[in-house]
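Contributing new records

If you add data, match the layout below exactly. Sequence lines come first and carry their own label; structure lines follow with theirs. Keep one chain per record. Anything else will be rejected by the validation script.
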Amino acid sequence: MDITFHSEFAGFELGQKKRHRDWIRAQIRERNKQPVAIAFVFTTNEDLRKINRTYLNHDYFTDVITFGYGEDDRISGDIYISVDQVRRNAGEYGVSFEEELRRVMSHGVLHLLGFNDSNEKERRRMRELEEEALNLWSTGEGDG
């Protein structure tokens, strides 16, 4: 299985890569799925907006866009994250950049797992699952 992290954002490099990989694997395996190939791409607001326009016909900023390629229980995909927007969100929600980044990373993984957030009920469920993922990180479960 391959979980990769790519930064197209100058000055940003994800720390604790092994721990992040283990944490992501734990989230996927909790749902009885098999992680196969997941690429996280950290980029700018402008670049993510271009992707949003080109592939989703949406002309606005967002924090994460997920493209899933997996089949059945095999989870694969690309998760694009705007470092700019994560910083803004962290300030707006009064949380650390790292916590908000992990929330957004988890949100992308949840989309790969088949969860959606197109209505209020789905959004509430996604928030609950994001909280579970953040708790998994803070307790160190899934490490190693």
